[in-house]
Design a protein that fits this description.
By secondary structure, this protein is α+β, with helices and mostly antiparallel strands. The chain has one domain: minor pseudopilin epsh fold (3-Layer(bab) Sandwich), CATH 3.55.40.10. Helix content is 28%, strand content 26%. It contains two helices and ten strands; from the N terminus they run E-E-H-E-E-E-H-E-E-E-E-E. It has a four-stranded antiparallel sheet. The protein is elongated, with a radius of gyration of 25 Å. It starts with a strand and ends in an 11-residue tail after the last strand. The model has no long low-confidence stretch (mean pLDDT 87).
Length: 202
């Protein structure tokens, strides 16, 4: 706004113009922040799901390469106190049960003969994971044999994982939940349970 003072013009912003600008900025932020938060939650879900999918593919590949049984185990953490958990967001690919040994260095001879590990903090946080067997019971492991197919039991006798669900730990209706489904032949795929059709549908 130009204010005339004698023969000169001075530039300035009135209080009303400033208040209008602040109000517009506040409205834009109110609209944009929830969308950005949902984007972050969806990114966390996808990162965790893709990390788990990578672990499953690695376990199957190692089983084929070594021509022996290799398992993926879901665990609650990567310390000496780790335990198997069907809600664990960390995972271990190994030949033996890694309970209490998740911190052991990778080795072909030292139990639990770990091939690779992944901490939840590396794959994504703020996500709830639930793994179930084909009988819809809690399951924390899946074992692949030398042909790359799923064994009917994990070491110790538990049913293998056939589905892993990933949902945001923060209740939000607009986030996109994901699942991994593993068929008996050993193939695992990532899908969206709310998708009605298309390649991403479960």
């Amino acid at each position: 706004m130009l204010i005339r003072r004698g023969s000169q013009f001075a530039q300035g912003v009135t209080v009303v113009e400033l208040m209008v600008a602040v109000a517009i900025l506040a409205i834009l932020l109110a609209i944009g922040v929830p969308s950005f938060q949902n984007y972050i939650r969806n990114t966390q879900i996808r990162a965790t799901a893709e990390s788990m999918l990578a672990g499953l593919n690695l376990a199957r590949t190692e089983a084929l390469r070594r021509n022996t049984r290799v398992s993926l185990w879901l665990v609650n953490n990567m310390t000496a106190g780790c335990a198997r958990s069907n809600t664990g967001t960390s995972w271990v690919v190994s030949l033996d049960d890694p309970t209490g040994k998740c911190h052991v260095a990778s080795s072909a001879t030292v139990s639990p003969r770990i091939a690779q590990v992944r901490s939840a903090s590396e794959g994504g946080t703020g996500v709830n994971v639930t793994a179930t067997s084909g009988m819809a019971t809690a399951s924390s492991c899946i074992t692949f044999n030398g042909f790359g197919t799923v064994e009917s039991e994990c070491p110790g006798g538990s049913d293998p994982i056939s589905r892993i669900a990933f949902v945001s730990a923060t209740a939000a209706d607009s986030t996109r939940d994901l699942q991994i489904r593993i068929n008996p032949g050993g193939a695992a795929r990532l899908c969206a349970p709310d998708a009605v059709s298309g390649p991403s549908a479960c």
